[in-house]
Amino acid sequence: MTTTAKITKKTDRKLLSGNEALAQGAYEAGVISAAAYPGTPSTEILESLVQFPDLDVQWSVNEKVAYEVALGAAVGGVRSLFACKHVGLNVAMDPLMTSSYTGITAGFVVVIADDPGMHSSQNEQDTRWVSIYSKMPLLEPSSPSEAKEFVKEAFKISERFDTPVMVRLTTRISHTKEDVRIQKREAPSQPVFEPNAAKFVMVPGNARKRHLVVEKRLEKLKSFAERSRLNRIEKGDKKLGFITSSVTYNYVKEQYPDASFLKLGFSYPFCDDKIKEFAKSVKKLVVVEELDPFLEEHIKSLCIKAHYKHPSFRCGELRPELVSDVVAGKKKSVKQMPARKPRLCAGCPHLFSFGVIKKLNLFVTGDIGCYTLAAIPPMSTLHTCVCMGAGVTFNEGIRKAKPGQKVVGVVGDSTFVHSGVTGLINAAYNKAKGVIFILDNRTTAMTGGQEHPGTGLTIRKEPTKELDLVALCKACGADNVDVMDPRQREKFEKLVKKRVNEDSLSVIIAKHPCKLIK
Amino acid sequence: MAKKTKKNDRTYNILFCGIGGQGVLTASEICGWAAMLAGFNVKKSEVHGMAQRGGSVESHLRFGKKVYSPLVPEGDVDYLVSFHKDEHQRLKGFLKSGGTDLVEYLADAEKKLEDTRGLNTFLIGVLSARLDLPQDCWMKAMEKVFKPQYLEQNKKVFLEGRSVAQK
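The joint structure predicted for all components is written out below.
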């Protein structure tokens, strides 16, 4: 065997993940501001952006806040980026929907990382639908190199059409690494922000006019999508043609290298004419996409005859070895042995908290974080998990339905700040009683240990005002706020017993740092 | 299915598997850099997030002239690098017939290594003996991945693994 490839010039290429490449692209495009809340698989976008000097990058308290901060920067006149995981986008939907109406001053890119297969998520939503719902353009890169290129294009489209632009990644793009070419940073565009109430003050009278603008903009975007080089026809064998997008394109291209392709990169608004032209040029047309029938339903509406995946493929990842079954119209069959499940680390402070909770046989409303792993046997001590913050609010609801049942809620420190605090105010205001545990391990552990207001450090590890959780919980209306290290087993158990049997609203802050942070 | 057949166009498919904390991702990172420094198009895919919590970790690494899919299709793995017997059991079906299973070196590593943290570097050394990438690229790759204070020790372990596999 001999090595045939040439030695690469090491200066201009790097092995980058999709998230790192996207950050690199945003940097090259002259981005100035970026905001996010951590979430797998999107976390590393901000962690990469913060490596560049002079950018205004922040971990925000939650996705809604992050979206508004980033949108504000774009409206104010600097290129700006918001990043989240798919479920994080739900939290940001309120500003997102209206930002489609206001538009921007400088480019604004909304990056969403979906998680087909739910490697680290509570649902498998396909956020491509949000582009239709919000009337925003949607770009879908298929690889790290494309993530870099597409984000640059997204900033241009944003400014040209005065709209936020969605860029959708999936886990297999975010966490795939590829050799990516590094380029220079463009001089950031600096359009001047002019006060314009008709555009930026969304009261009904103004918003009605802006809705008309949005509809017209969609028409223009549609004709742009028809011409966009991101929607690429690859002429091949005329007997077999594929319409596909995202990482799926790579799976199909590899299995059928000789077929014809319409690779959609500018996925919404749909390029109907290009789709029709391509459909006419091939004998058998197959639409291949991961998760929901997003392309399928639209292509069906165009009365184009095509083959689609069996509905069983709407669930889970589409892996390369499954592509031939999709093409054959077969049902999804997965034979792989189940993977080893993650568990709480040895010595994790949560184990001590749950040890006591389990012993007292309490019903536990859970939340999103490492501590969700307490639901898995043999611990089996967590009974609900829906979304960020629900450890607090669900608790209140369950109590109403099950009077007499001893119910406690658990929430992490970062999650409490994200969206638990409103639930605690609600509980106090509505005279709810009970115990909420804030499992304070001094970090956002599940996503790899990010700072948050409670740690007193910024994303750059600079000291900042540290949120006083005790004062906050008291101000929300908690009757008792105790802080204790759960590893003091006997003392901790005694405290929990006491609070659980009281007729009051209590917060127990079980405080001990995560074993993985140094 | 017209798969690539020309020798120069060959795509190398490597699957690394183990459990959280074993250094699986670092191993595939080094191999990815080595292939990239040797001038190949590289794609490497894995799932982060749960990796530190003892769950299964697998990393797919592919390189060649042009690589599309970041995942190795089941039954197409050329080299299976296992860090854990259970994970080997789970994923050995990914090997193609005639593919190289490096699981036998797991026992060697356990015997030879004073510090189990060197397992990933040892197995990378083993793999390097089977792959046709210049040794220089491996060394440079380790410089990219390891902090300076750990570099020399890792280079030593790498060469140990490499020599075991060359015997």
